[in-house]
Amino acid sequence: MHDLEKSQLTLGFIPLTDCAPLVVAKERGLFAKYGLEVTLSKETSWANIRDKLAIGILDGAQLLAPMPLAMSLGVGPVHKPMVTAMVLSLGGNAITVSDTLYQEMQRIAAATLEAKPHSSDALRAVIDQRRREYDRPLTFATVFPTSTHNYELRYWLAASGIDPDRDLQLMVIPPPQMPSALARGEIDGYCVGEPWNGVCVAEGICHTLVTKYQLWNNSPEKVLGVTEEWAEQNPNTHQALIMALLEACRWLDQPDNRHQVAELVASSRYVNAPLKAVRNSLTGVLQRHPQGPVEEQPEFNLFFRNAANFPWRSHAVWFLTQMVRWGQLGHPVDFHGVAGRVFRPDLYRTAAAALGLDAPHEDYKREGEHHAAHGVSGSHGPIGLGSDRFIDGATFDPFNPLRYIESQLPHKEPRFTDNVVSLPRRD
């Protein structure tokens, strides 16, 4: 750590439970251990973080997993090549609706709400009735256009035949503002990260329907993001940053440490939310409604287990398919080329080796095939992974993304397939 190109860093984050790796690395002196003097900058929105990264105000940031891909491709107003060499967290999101809407769903289609996790069939029944009665369309919010939340909400809706772009209205609201927007009746539901579902439930104004884990088991959520230029100019600093955060994630994922972390994360310096809501999300305690039973989801939020930090390029390809599916990409895309440039498991492996940590041999894996724990080969032997099931039972082959996209668009014109580059299958 004596050859750091830069030792004073500013890292951006959004007040969410899963900013915990940054908080732990700062508060437990892990940044300092690697010669880094880090200032954590609480930002008000993902757009703020994107813009500050692009112009160099921030050295790096907690990013939504699709954001480095979107910025590198110019999806949105900013076109800036980005790099992510590690995932910071898996899971942590949920889809929540107002009590008023939930009661309407119960009244119209109570039987479809009996199964767990909830499908969106009851919501489709409400939408159909409103259309017949010429009532106003429902409004849902997500946190950013190229967010995991946007793609998760759309995936859940589309699984029941709801067209997110025609059957309801979608808007973007920063995470901490979601509960108040719901309380004021400005939106009918949202997809957001914790603790902002739990806070809303505690206030008695909403009902949580389905979690990110139930939508796609052990799927990536936040990543460490830096610009490609910054990574090239500061390779040693980048490695030190990754190593500090890997140590933080490993410490954080020990169950005995979660309660201690909750007190730090809930404080006004970071999330500024009720301790109980933050603690529940960190310990996998889910309450869908104030009068409802408490459910345990041990894998609701993961930070280290199940090779959580490895930047799978197959995950990058899946996010790219969603950008194509929902019309955000209007130019040719080389799925493998983009995934290889933005998601950097090579940099992860270097940092992991320096810490004596195992890392998968492969950069890609099929998703949706494993409904239970399984393993892959790693540098030190087999590595245990969790299930990767999708809520609709679909499977995803990262070496055939066109077929996957076409399977998701059975009733639409194949207009997207003209804008993508087909990939050869592996031998």
List keywords for this structure.
single chain; 427 residues; alpha/beta; D-Maltodextrin-Binding Protein, domain 2; 2 domains; six-stranded mixed sheet; five-stranded mixed sheet; 18 helices
Q: Biggest sheet, in brief?
A: 6 strands, mixed
Total of domains = 2
Number of H- or I-type helical stretches:
18
Strand content: 15-25%
Rounded to an integer in angstroms, the radius of gyration calculated over CA atoms is 21 Å
List the SSEs and their pairings:
Blueprint: E1 8-13, H1 20-27, H2 30-33, E2 37-42, H3 46-55, E3 60-64, H4 67-73, E4 82-91, E5 93-98, H5 99-109, H6 121-132, E6 139-142, H7 148-158, E7 169-172, H8 178-183, E8 189-193, H9 196-202, E9 206-211, H10 212-215, E10 220-227, H11 228-233, H12 235-252, H13 258-266, H14 275-283, E11 285-287, E12 294-296, E13 301-302, H15 313-325, H16 335-342, H17 345-354, E14 374-378, E15 381-385, H18 401-408
Parallel strand pairs: 1-2, 1-3, 6-7, 6-8
Antiparallel strand pairs: 3-10, 4-10, 4-13, 5-8, 5-9, 11-12, 14-15
Helix pairs in contact: 1-12, 1-13, 5-6, 9-14, 12-17, 13-14, 15-16, 15-18
